[in-house]
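# step 3/5: fold
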Amino acid sequence: MIGSLFHKTNITLKISIAIMLFFLLPATALAENQAVIENIKLANTRDDLLTYFDVKKAFTPKINQAVLNGIPTTFSFYVSLYKTQGSWFDKKIADIQFKSTLKYNALKKNFSVLRSWKDKDAVIVQTFKEAKSLMTEIDNLKILPLNQLTKGDKYQLRIKAKLDRVTLPLSLHYVLFFVSFWDFETNWYLINFIY
């Protein structure tokens, strides 16, 4: 009886460990391949504060496959500027949200990228590599006019990016079941500076 109980407990323990590993290993793998924001820079013209940044690891094999199958892919970007006052509550002075959308035209064998923050019309490129660069490299993004900043005050720039969920016709949900697994969202990235 005791031997049988020990055997059942041992099997239950092995199953529990296997289940935990099943859920933990994908999370570890995702953390290593998680999209990140890098190369954040601040600059200014005579009149405006600008930012530059790149999103790395945004295109996973599943996202690549979806794009090449003609599914439009949209990245949303969130950029906020706060005046930090050394208290619990920082004052938000700029809040920018914009999107970049990538579509592949299989007949023409080209990619169109619509960047709402930069171009009125879509940019057409021939290679997937060029299209990915247009989607993930943000340059000359105007945050706000310099006359809205105060000399000597402290500020914090916060940046985040995410892949918008795709809305597919109901019939495709069964064929493209993987769509729910290819979304990403970066952490917030912070830059502190004194003007």
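# step 4/5: annotate
The chain is about 30% helix and 40% strand.
# step 5/5: archive (pending)
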